[in-house]
Amino acid sequence: MSTIATPLQLLSDHARLPGAAGLLDPQRLSALLGQEITLDRLRIKPTASVLVSYRAAGSAPTGVRGQALADVGWVQLVASRDKRDNVLRRAARSESRILEHTTADTGPYLLSGGLDSDPRLGREIHRLLGHLGDAALRVLSYNPGRHAVLLLPDSGEVLRLAARPLDGLLQVGECWRELGLPTIAQRRWRARRAVLIGEHWGQGDLAGLSRHPLSMPAATRLGEIIARLHTADVTECDLPPARIGELVPVTTEVVADLLPERAPQIERLSQRLRETLSAGGPPALIHGDLSPDQVLVSVDETAVPGEGQLPLRVVDLDRSGLGPRSADLGSWIASCLLADVEEQATAFLRGYARHLALPPSTELAAWTARALLSSALDPMRRHSEDWLERVVRRLALAEAVLERPGRLSLPVPAPAVPSTDGQEPLVPVSVEHDGRLLTVRRAWADDGRGMPLELEDGSAGSGRAGLRAARLDPATGQVTLLEPGTDPRLPALARVLAQHPSGTVVSHRPGKRAVVRLEGGGGGEVGEGGARYVKIVRPGRAARLLDAIGRSAAFDGPFRTARVLDADDDTVTFAALAGHLLHDGLPTADGIWRRAWRETLEAWAAAVQSSRNRLGTMAVHGPSAEAEVLEAWGERADAVDPAGAGVRGRATALARRELLRLGEVEQPALIHRDLHDKQVLWDPCAGPALLDVDTATAGDPALDAANLRAHATWRELQGIWTEEQAAVVREEIDRAGARSGICPETLAAYESGTIARIACVYAFRPRWRAAARALAASLDQTGSPAHPAPQNPVPAPAGDPTPLGGAATHLERSMS
């Protein structure tokens, strides 16, 4: 039976050096060095060497930047005796201490030392220490054998030491400053060509401050700056070529060697890049490695007058030079995709487009995919614990971007110098309150009292204080927070929390509903671990919840449903259900993911079939009603995100056209009407459970199947599910749909409607706003979804996967 290689085995096999696993395992390396360490950097040359840098675990005190010099070091395993001898000779000349951990004459040879004994940087560091004496240097960055960045706390300056002369970096930096572009001035330290010194500037970078309320305007301003860079006349400057490497990154060969099973995928991607990429056209001055973490920002608005509300400096110009403009744009977009801040990509491109026309989306997609491939090994080189998943995600993103350039979050086309009046999204990314930044999780349409907001206070820790409700005045943009645990239109919220002080608010839509989780207090029979959920609505509205539960009785049996424990005028209390929320995914390799979805869809099909003869006088929700829902959502979304109105408008028009082609529902059944992965819990022993049946009604079962299918596409686009997970879900939906007699054309029409509706709903959620625009763009000109159901679906493999071990973990559910 074949076994799946662990990440450590993959790295060791890639190195092809005896003893490599001892360097690549932090625990074994800690034992070798006699101290607990954390691996920082990793560089492997197969059959030749393995080089890592490390820092002492817990060595950086809170609030202090960087590491102490003595807490940073390197370890190298080298096959060549000549290279081993060269390292030891250099150390002897500078009187550095290097430990040799092997005694065999034939190698490989294992060496270790501190930063001051680095084989290529050690001499410069010794000179530096000789001049600075006992200065408390802090190490901000260390890439063994290549560079180190050190902070001088006394002067507030930063030193950069490299293994090669930095004349080119000085020259490029001087050109940037002559052009009036914001960067940090550097000069040689004591005439050393490989050591530069400059100001330590700012309080962070655009990556770390992406949730700051001024970060999006700063990204837009950066776009304008880079457009100026790209159009600058540098004919009088003797600039080097940008150091961006080959059009098809050489890292592709390394990834294929590291992950042999991915070799066919990498070859496909490489071939696509060969076919689509071109370095033609006049070269421009580019950054060469543009990303949010290369842009320093100052949150002190008075620090640099005249630079706007968030002054910035573009740094790390090592790769800057003459090259194709699209390389910078693709690099920026790729970085934002990986960080799940696509709105930062859109804001940047909006600023860029004010001064310089954007390339076609296909060209941008190609350069974005190239940047993703070029950086595919970064998680491994930085020794992230989940490096394997991150590498695979970058490959999947590169493939998805090439296949569907429309998923890129491009700004709405505009004149070269357009007006931006009314184009900014109404819902902010975050809100400042009492000196803290609260993240906007969700928002809803204005109900006449302002737009309801649900905020998250990441600094509040656990407890209900972490979730806050607020209202936004659309006319002024003013945000007013409600007192924690209160809502004037939901008086039961304060009452429930007064009765249960340890209760936790897990969801709160101001003025409409809230959910409070209560722990224990009812014994194990009450719910999973005795937990309960109290759903709070406006006075007199609880009866509607109970009516909906009564209408959806056909779901109870095929599914487990939440048992009602108590109810009054404005609350309904439910027992918690055991299970794993399908939204959070399960492994695919052992078949457990397929099993969970197959059991869920079989339960759904059974409920649909059993409900057909007991619908009574229930109103039927058909295609025309769904089209009306979609039209209303489109209007709401345009009000809060006018920049996305164009792409959403095209998507909703296409989807409504397909929906209105459908006839009336011939065989209505009970449908959930809002069925998606966050509504289903699954337990390997107890089976699937269904949540939130408030929207249940009579209708076309194809709508429920389409909801699930569209959400699979959305979760893949969000990066929450892998391509394989989404494909399994679609296969199981198609299998269940075929067995239930659902027409593929009907399923596709409803799925298009759901995709367009999701794009509208998520226009209210800042984190996903840009991705939602990309989802809308995924509908092609026929209004079809990107992954249509097959006309004759092939039954998915059956099998009986091994069940999960142990009891299923109960996940908190907002039930909203």
CATH superfamily of the largest domain: Aminoglycoside phosphotransferase (APH), C-terminal lobe
Give the overall average pLDDT: 87
Give the end-to-end Cα distance, rounded to a whole number of Å: 45 Å
What oligomeric state is this?
A: single chain
Biggest sheet architecture: 6 strands, antiparallel
The CATH topology of the largest domain: Aminoglycoside 3'-phosphotransferase, Chain: A, domain 2
| Domains (count) | 4
Radius of gyration: 29 Å
Strand tally is 33
Biased composition (Pro residues): 787-800
Region (Disordered): 781-816
Organism: Brachybacterium massiliense
Domain Aminoglycoside phosphotransferase: 218-353, 648-718
List keywords for this structure.
single chain, 816 residues, alpha+beta, Aminoglycoside 3'-phosphotransferase, Chain: A, domain 2, Phosphorylase Kinase, domain 1, 5-stranded antiparallel beta sheet, 23 helices, 33 strands, globular, disordered C terminus
Provide a descriptive summary of the structure in words:
α12 (361-374) packs antiparallel against α14. The protein is globular and about 90 Å long. The chain has four domains: 7-161, no CATH class; 204-407, Alpha-Beta Complex (Aminoglycoside 3'-phosphotransferase, Chain: A, domain 2), CATH 3.90.1200.10; 485-576, Phosphorylase Kinase, domain 1; 582-777, Aminoglycoside phosphotransferase (APH), C-terminal lobe (Aminoglycoside 3'-phosphotransferase, Chain: A, domain 2, Alpha-Beta Complex), CATH 3.90.1200.10. β10 (186-189) and β11 form a beta hairpin. By secondary structure, it is α+β, with helices and mostly antiparallel strands. The longest helix has 20 residues, at 592-611. 36% of the residues lie in helices and 19% in strands. Residues 781-816 are annotated as: Disordered. Residues 218-353, 648-718 form the Aminoglycoside phosphotransferase domain. Residues 787-800 have a biased composition (Pro residues).
